[in-house]
Amino acid sequence: MNRVRALRRELFDIRPGEHLRTWFMFFYLLCVLFAYYVLKPVSRSMFLTKFNIDKLPSLYMLIAVFGGLFAYLYSKLAARSSLQTAVFWTLSVSVGSLVAMWMFIGLPWMVYVLNIWVSMFAIVLVSQGWLVASNLFDAREAKRLYPLLAMGMVLGAAFGGEFTNRTALLVGTRNLLLASAGMVVLAYVAVRLAILPAREKVSHARAAESGGDFSFRQMTSDIRRVRHLQVIVGLMMVMYLVDTLVEYQFQVTARQVYRGDQLTAFFGQFYGLYLNLTEFVFQLFLTAAVVKRFGVGGTLQISPAGVLLTSVATVMAPGVTSAGAVRLTEASTRYTLNRTGMELLYMPLPAVLRNRTKAFIDICVDRVSRGLGGFLLLLLTATFLHLGVKEIAMVTMALCIPWMYFSYLARKEYVSTIRKRFAARRLDFETVRVSVHDPATAGLLETTAAGDNPRQAAYALSLLAEAPEYDIRRLLRRLSADCAPEVCRKVYEIAAKLKWDGLVEGARGRPGGLAYLLAVSPERRDLARELLDDADPARAREAIEALREEADLVGELIAPEWLEENARSDDARRRALAATAIGIRGDEGTELLHRLLADPDPETAGAAVRAAGALRGRPYILGLINALGNARLRGDAIAALAAYGPSIAGSLADAMTDTALPARVRQQVPRVLKNIPDQRSVDVLLGRVDHADVSIRYSVLKALNRLRETAPHLCFDHASVMRQILNEALHYYELNAALEPFRDRRDGNYGASRLLALSIEERLKYTLERLFRLLGLRYPPKEIYSAYVAVARQHGDSATAALEFLDNVLERDLKRILLPLLDAPEHILDHGRELFGVEVRTAEEAVRELIRSGDPWLVSCAIAAAAELQFRSLAPEIALAAKEAAEEVGEVARSAEVALAA
Amino acid sequence: MAEPNIVEKVIALEGVELLRNLTPEQLARIGSIAREVRFPPGKLILEAGKAFDALYVIIEGSVELSRNGEMLYTAHLHDVLGAWALFDENDPMPVSAKTLEDTRLLRIGRDDFYDLLADNGEITAALFSTLVQRFRKLVEQP
Predict the structure, then answer these.
(1) Which of A664, A861, A894 has its CB closest to that of B7?
(2) Do B8 and A888 lie within an 8 Å CB cutoff?
(3) With contact defined as beta carbons under 8 Å apart, do B25 and B81 qualify?
(4) Do A337 and A302 meet the contact criterion of CB atoms below 8 Å apart?
(5) Rounded-to-integer distance, Cα A902 and Cα A553, Å
(6) Which candidate in B7, B22, B33 is best for mutational testing of the A interface (most A CBs within 10 A)?
(7) Is A446's pLDDT higher than 50?
(8) How confident is the model at residue A211 (pLDDT cuts 50, 70, 90)?
(9) How close is the nearest chain B Cα to the Cα of A872, in Å?
(10) Which sign does the torsion angle of CA B47, B49, B55, B57 carry?
């Protein structure tokens, strides 16, 4: 039963709200093709009855010329009207023309007119039908439903051919024109009903966009400008060239075997039975599955590959069987796989561009290419070349190469166009720098530096200090005489960096002056000693900070006794000084830094953490890891641990799994690893990507994503990533099944069970985020992120484009598992069952599973829900949780026991 | 009556407007720092003109809010007292609050709250989002 349901979904995945437009569009295409397959044999039979077969090439040429003209005129007229109006007039003119030709078919030139008209009929009406469809369905809907619409065409062709076969002798060839007109009327009714749900949209859509400004130049300019369109044109041209050559081979070989009525019967059997049967089977069982599995690019590759392979047979043994096989392959794939693939190829284009160009390209390229095909045939057969079927088969094979290449390009363009639809643009402010190369800029900065805004002045000074050929000393001297504290500090900082002693006089009492003197003054040693012993710890701190880069001098000035005394001081600022000094001069084997790392004062502990990071001694690692649990020390602790570099990766890996450490500490470890861009970090993180604690798993993924972005050269083991994607996907399907019995409680006036439903939903969101983060390790991270944002926010077109992007980029196995989560929410339960055997349980069983899940919050909610819903059979599980679970879960379990016992 | 468990605390906190953008699990983290306090009838919980350092959520009973002796509102189950006191350390409360009967409340202290925010960036982000929405609503009002 499940298999039948899966097969039905595979073939006809029509979702609520889509039925009306889908089936009426199906019926429209069926009617149009029915009419065409009545008209085609009628017009061909009338032509061959009236003229010799050698007149056919001239007919091809006329069709090409009139086809081009007609495409131009149609596009020009259509540009002035809405799509709805264009459909009405096209179908009305078609019916009128058919009736007129029925009346005047006796005129000598009317058979030519009929043949040219018929060649236009199918292209215009079918192209227009697909244009309506592209305005009725978005890209995702199109991918599911276009194969079904294309099946309408196949059925229409089959019924039309069979109808002609059975009625031609009964009613006469001429009267079939009226039958065809009747089908066009039915087609009009169908399309009117199809557009009812989206009448507004279709009435605003242009049949060929651009208002009254349409021109051939604009059309060709669009094609020149948009690579996507160029690929479509190239693909169509080579496809129709091959079509003409293949048809020729088939007709020549058929004529060698059959004559007269036998030939007509053979063609009738071939086109009416074999071709339509093959197309029907392709469309029913193959097209949707191929499109789903191989995407647009893969679908378009099948036809040229098939023609290439079957043409080998014609080269080896030219004859009606081999040429028939090629024709069957080419025509059947063209009307099924290629038709669907080509229509999908238009979907990512902006609607305005698509509506403006599609009809022109479809009609014009078809006709012109077939005309070119006729010309090529004349060249190959009627000139000195005199090529036979075998040689033409070789030419066909050669043409299959560019055909396949265009199919490959089509896939690339398709993905690239989708990508552009939602790609996020980011400005990296860090890269925005002002360069000072010209006197005008330098003058402006000098004015700013001397201005009233201290912040701007300090920034201007920093820019001038970096200017390569600018002597800043004169400006520094001028500003040092009278400046705001912030500017003063900058002035002395720059002068210290330059090791310029021109500002020594008067510096002592100024902001930043002491640090400057400690850097350049000849008496810096005495000054430093004096400051270190100053009663004010802030001055001692200034001295230590100024000498940070001079470990030898600090070692000389700061004795172990000084460190000991300050480290034991009651004044936290003194203890912090001691920690900072140890960071510069080293600990010399003392235990002082261990004690300072555990200091209750955050400033002291922070200084100790920074000191440990500067010393990078292994004995401090545990202290630093513990500091990760303190929000006030965390930033320094992360920087200090990261300063150890890749050699610390093993210790951090152990810390992540050490349950003796608090969870809040273990959660922070990945933040350290993300700051160590080394393969060892990646390996450690990937090894913990399946961590049982969801919050740690999330931190690990965030760290991996960051490493992927900052160090793309690192290797992210494909197998580990894939394994975890499957785990997370399974988790998603399980959570979704667990939510099912509670789905209707989300919005009701329930307590714990509503909270349980909301919490599961929240977990589903986080699981989805983790899945995308994992995808970001395998595929381009920025694009995956953009896709996630679009999907998570469900922004109409962007979400559709994102899904289409994923559909084209993800590997097949991933696509099969992940896309149903995003694209078919109403079928997730079915997919969970089919892919992982996840079954929906009763509310009681679902709660039991959640109590056993090990996720503390979900366990709490599930226990509370069990009590609320009076699930007494869960008492043993609840009793176990009351005894063994962590404090908060235990409290909930004990409350639940009381409630169940009442 | 026993101290409410974490699930009961979350259900109580769901009614707090300031916390409405938080997920149930984030509310549970706030619930973990919330402590139950009990007051007899007639007890003054907030005094107008004095600074306040916690948020209270009523989980049983009722509280009368008044200004200058004039009764303004009677707060009941899941009503919140002092929501904005969490962010505003200096401004004194404009109203007084007195229990009308035996009343149980959840108390979330400012210091614990800030420690929690330091450890949970996503809760801070959700609170910012609420504040921004509130601010935008005020700005957009004609």
Answers:
(1) A861
(2) no
(3) no
(4) yes
(5) 76
(6) B7
(7) yes
(8) very low
(9) 19
(10) positive
Q: Which residues of A228-257 are buried (b: 16+ CB within 10 A; e: fewer)?
A: bbbbbbbbbbbbbbbbbbbbbbbbbbbeee
Q: How far is B85 from chain A (nearest CA, A)?
A: 23
Q: Is B70 on the interface with A (CB under 8 A)?
A: no
Residue of chain A whose Cα is closest to the Cα of B10:
A755
Which of A668, A749, A868, A895 would best serve as a mutation to test chain B binding (most B beta carbons within 10 A)? Answer: A895
Whether residue B23 and residue A892 make contact (CB cut-off 8 A), yes or no, is no
Closest CA to A578 of A591, A590, A562, A589: A562
Burial class (CB in 10 A: 0-12, 13-18, 19+), A104: exposed
Question: Do the bridges between strand B103-109 and strand B54-60 make them parallel or antiparallel, or are there none, so unpaired?
Answer: antiparallel
Dist CA A47 CA A41 (whole Å): 10
Residue holding tokens 């939903």? A761
The residue extents of the domains of chain B are 6-109+127-137
Which of A638, A860, A892 best tests the B interface by mutation, with the highest count of B CBs <10 A?
A860
Nearest-by-CA chain A residue for B29: A857
Give the model confidence (pLDDT) of A654-675 as tens digits: 999 898 898 889 999 999 999 9
Other beta carbons within 10 angstroms of residue A682's beta carbon come to 25
- Sequential DSSP letters for A45-89: HHHHHHS-GGGHHHHHHHHHHHHHHHHHHHHHHHTTSBHHHHHHH
Give contacts of B8 with chain A, Cβ < 8 Å. Answer: 864, 895
Which of B11, B28, B115 shows the shortest C-beta gap to A631? B115
Q: How far apart are CA B13 and CA B30, in angstroms?
A: 8
Instruction: Please identify among residues 802-841 of chain A the ones whose CB lies closer than 8 Å to any CB of chain B.
Output: none
Residue A637: Cβ within 10 Å count: 29
What are the backbone dihedrals phi and psi of residue B71, each rounded to the nearest 5 degrees, phi first?
-70, 130
DSSP A619: G
What superfamily in CATH does domain B6-109+127-137 come from? Jelly Rolls (2.60.120.10)
Banded model confidence at residue A425, pLDDT cuts 50, 70, 90: very low
* Beta-carbon separation of A891 and B24 below 8 A: no
Whether residue A664 and residue B7 make contact (CB cut-off 8 A), yes or no, is no
Does the pLDDT at position A263 exceed 90? Answer: no
Here the tokens at position A525 are: 């040693």
What are A174's two structure tokens? 């001429």
- pLDDT tens-digit readout, A781-823: 888 888 888 888 776 667 777 888 888 888 888 888 888 888 7
What is the C-alpha to C-alpha distance for residues A356 and A210, in angstroms, rounded to an integer? 7
Q: Which of A631, A762, A864 sits opposite B7 (nearest CB)?
A: A864
Q: Which residues neighbour A666 within 8 Å (Cβ) at sequence distance 6 or greater?
A: A655, A656, A657, A658, A693, A696
The SS3 of residue B67 is strand
Residue A430's pLDDT is 35
Q: pTM of the entire structure?
A: 0.67
Q: Give the pLDDT of residue B26.
A: 92
Give the gyration radius of chain A's Cα atoms. Answer: 39
DSSP assignment of A115-132? HHHHHHHHHHHHHHHHHH
Chain B residues 95-134 within an 8 A CB cutoff of chain A? 115, 118-119
Instruction: Give the closest of B3, B24, B115 to A755, CB-based.
Output: B24
* Count of A-B CB contacts under 8 Å: 48
C-alpha torsion angle, residues A781, A783, A785, A791 (rounded to 10)? -150
Q: Quickly tell me which residue has 């005495």 as its tokens.
A: A526
Q: Chain B partners of A861 at a C-beta cutoff of 8 Å?
A: 7, 24
Among A64-73, A401-410, A426-435, A503-512, top mean pLDDT goes to A401-410
Q: Which amino acid is at A182?
A: G
Spell out the domains of chain A, with CATH numbers in brackets.
Answer: 12-208 (1.20.1250.20), 215-422 (1.20.1250.20), 616-716 (1.25.10.10), 727-901 (no CATH)
